[in-house]
Every structure is written in C-alpha cells, then in structure tokens.
Design goal:
mainly alpha, 2 domains, 64% helix, elongated
Amino acid sequence: MAAKKKSGIRFKARTKNTVLRFIGVLRSSAVNADREQREKELLWKANLIPGRSDPPDFPPTQRQFEETATEKAKFQRFLDMHFPRRRFEALRVVLDEASRSKVTTPITLYRAIFESRQMLRSASRTMNFICEQAGLRRPPLQICEACGKLFVLGRQDQQTCSDRCSARRRVARARATKNLQEDIQKSMAAAGPAAVARALSTRRRKKR
C-alpha cells in the first residue's frame, strides 16, 4: 500500500511539472525523448475521459476510505453507470490493467486521471485567458472545440485536435447558421408582411 501511495505522489509531481512546461512557465531548449514520452502519456491518460463537461468524481465526497471489497464493488458500479465499457473501452481497459498491477489500483489510477485532466484543462483555460488579455500568442496546451480533448498546438490558428474534428466543427457551424436563418424566417413569417416590410426598410437605412 505504501508503494502504491508513493507511486501516486510521483505521478502528481510529474503532472504538475508537465503542466508548467505546457503553459510555458518552464522552458527547456533540450527536451529529451523520455520527457516527450511522459508528456504524451499524460495527455493520452487525461483524454481517456473525453468530452467538455467535468466527469464525476469517486468517491463523490473527499472522505477518507480504505479500498475494501465494498469500496471496490461501489467503484465497479460507478464505472458501469458513468463509463459503460461499450463507449469508454480505452478507459476501462486501462483500469482493468491497473487491477492486475502491483503499484497501483483502479481507484487510485482513476483519481490520477481525473485530477490530471482537471489540472490540464484548468491550466489551458487560464493561460488562454491571460494570453488573450495581454495580446500574446496562444499557449501550446489547448482544448479541441469539436470533441473536447486536450491537444498541443501545431499552428496558432488551429482550433481542433485533428482533421476529423476540424470537419465536424465546420459541419456543426454550418448547421447552426442554417438553423438560425430558418428561425429568423419563421419569426418573420409569423410576424406578418407588415413586420417583414419594416425590418427590410430598417436594414436598407442602416446600409446607407
């Protein structure tokens, strides 16, 4: 149990240092392959819980508890309810592997994934806000506008993590524009011809 606790502490320390490098607080001209691999692994683990909304925590309150058989059974029910295997296969496989590990447990690993995801997303939002207010370049760590995954910028105008998500974003924006136009047309039709004539007259005066 002590070895598992130390492993969790080391994971949190690596997560904190990686966040600092991602947002530009720590800079190194010579990033070795081992560090790059750890950063990729951290992003991959954080993205095991996809989506934009915050995932549920376990335990739901910060109570002290022992990983007894009862708690493990509760955790399995928690996973089946919030992360069904059919939709979250990658996460469930990683947690299954943790159940066979000697250095961590599924609950400990889920907590580590949950906390690293929260930390990285918070850092991304904070640094994006600071850079925007200060007129600086966007920071490397970003959140995909289409799927909500974390990714590292390849170029400054990049808004999504992949070409697939870029296409999804374009389709979603086009659909939203079309729906807005249809709602406007319905509203104008319901208002009657006189209201439509007034709206067109107002628009022409603004153009002048």
